[in-house]
Request: fold
Amino acid sequence: MGRTLQIRVSAWTFDPAEVEKRWPRLVALGFSPPVLLKQERGVLELVDNLATRLELGVLPEAASKVLAGALTRAAAARERLDAALAEWNARAANTATDEIEEALDEAEQDARKLKSVPGLD
Reply:
C-alpha cells in the first residue's frame, strides 16, 4: 500500500431506499427523532442506531422487549463485519453481511407484532 494511494476495504448500502422498503418498521424506530446528525440511511447506520437506542433505553419498551435478541445479533454481526473488513477477509465479511440482513429480517417480522411503531402511526 502506498503512502499517497491507499486501499480500503469497505461495505456500504448501494440503494438506501431499499432499506426503507425492506425494513420499514425498523427504519421508523431507528431513524425517528431525536436524530442528532444527518446521516445516510443505510443498513449499517440502521444497525448502529437501533443497537444504540436499545442500549440507551430509547426504544419504546414494547419494541425493546420484542426486538432485543435480533438487534443484539445484528450488532454483533456488525462488529464481525468491521473486523473482517479490517483483515481484508472478504469471505468472513460476506458471512457477516448475511447475518446482519437475517437478523434485521427477523427483527422486522417481530416489529410487525407491535401495536404501535413511532413514525409509522
User: Anything to note?
Assistant: Residues 61-86 form the longest helix (26 residues). The radius of gyration is 15 Å.
